[in-house]
Amino acid sequence: MRLASGVRVLFAVPSMLxxxxxxxxxxxxxxxxxxxxxxVTATRLPQPAADVPAAVTVLRGAxxxxxxxxxxxxxxxxxxxxxxxxxxxxxxxTSLFLRxxxxxxxxxxxxxxxxxxxxxxxxFANLTTDNIDRIEVVRGPASVLYGSDAVTGVVQIxxxxxxxxxxxxxxxxVRGGTYGTLVWDAAASGGTEAASYSISLSxxxxxxxxxxxxxxxxxVFSGLAxxxxxxxxxxxxxxxxxxxMFHFPTNGAGVPVDHNQFTFGSGPTLGIDIxxxxxxxxxxxxxxxxxxxxxxxxxxxxxxxxxxxxQSLDDLxxxxxxxxxxxxxxxxxxxxxxxxxxxxxxRSFNVCETSFGDCSTAPIDSSRWNTGYYTQLVTHVGGGVxxxxxxxVDDNQRFGTYTTYRVxxxxxxxxxxxxxxxGTGFREPTFIENYSTGFSIDR
Length: 443
Prior knowledge:
Blueprint: E1 3-14, E2 38-39, E3 47-48, E4 55-60, H1 61-66, H2 72-76, E5 82-86, E6 94-98, E7 106-110, E8 113-114, E9 132-139, H3 143-146, E10 153-159, E11 167-177, E12 181-191, E13 195-206, E14 216-229, E15 233-247, E16 262-279, E17 282-299, E18 309-329, E19 333-354, E20 357-358, E21 364-382, E22 385-396, E23 400-413, E24 416-423, H4 431-434
Parallel strand pairs: 7-10
Antiparallel strand pairs: 1-11, 2-3, 4-9, 5-6, 7-8, 9-10, 11-12, 12-13, 13-14, 14-15, 15-16, 16-17, 17-18, 18-19, 19-20, 19-21, 21-22, 22-23, 23-24
């Protein structure tokens, strides 16, 4: 999209205590500080990227915003081994394919919270870069740590922590462009090493590229609050809420003929991450997460002569608790043991009418539980060699038990890095696949 004009305003908000202090030399924004080459998603441990056996790409939020990249789908186009496919105009269904796998083979996390629909699918059309600290893309099977859907990789979005100087920071901008596009956003952050916050609110709206029925809007709120206590306890609360609507005039052949069909969706993503050191070398972490989406599709008759109608409503909820312990042994050995419990619930119904009569399908109001047990061992064996091994067992009340594993090694020698990884993954069935005959789990 070509933007015609824009206005950006930046505010520095000093605290009352800092107001009496002498001026300090200018400091670069925390958002644009150079980050150490550390990744978390590959092993769920902060590790140097050179010690991770999996292929990992890290995209910094500050770099993306400096380039004018406002959506995650745009950012992922530069990831090796990734193919991003978008249908239609702004807001059209967007899928990610990693290493040639299906689009529902990629686990998507926002601050550790799974946001895929049951069955693995995820629409990237409405995921923006607002308030994002970084995006980590892990290529290769990762079901050992993340369970279902992490077959060809994992994409995790991290919210900005908001730490920095003893001054707050706020900014706002308004932009406009072609296709009747209007974008505005506002953000604020601040805090210290002991406590910090960041919040942002944005809206994107456009008339679309088609001459009729192609309006789109997307409103996103993102927030984070973090505390670190002296007793080696830390806690983080993250919240992301989206509300979108996408009108599209095209039929199944891509011809613009429909004047009123549209899709819509809204819902929160909430995560609470708590960590505490039970001993100098033993850390326990608990992640409580929930993701809820309410949306649907509406295609009413265009005229009295139109005999077709289809409307659907879907409510999806994924709630989980993940408890794990990291034991940091001497000689750079880390043992991780954890368990995860998840409940998925789907409620949906539809109204379908054609000239041949009623074509509605039976409503769904079902839930299922999954319990996983996993372990991982990261070992620095010396000589520039790092080994990573792990295993997991998932027990689902609907599709049974599944076991996965992963082994990997990294060898570093004089600036050269050799890595190898082998593992398995699985995708859980959708609710339709689970409650209908003729379907089986992908292996």
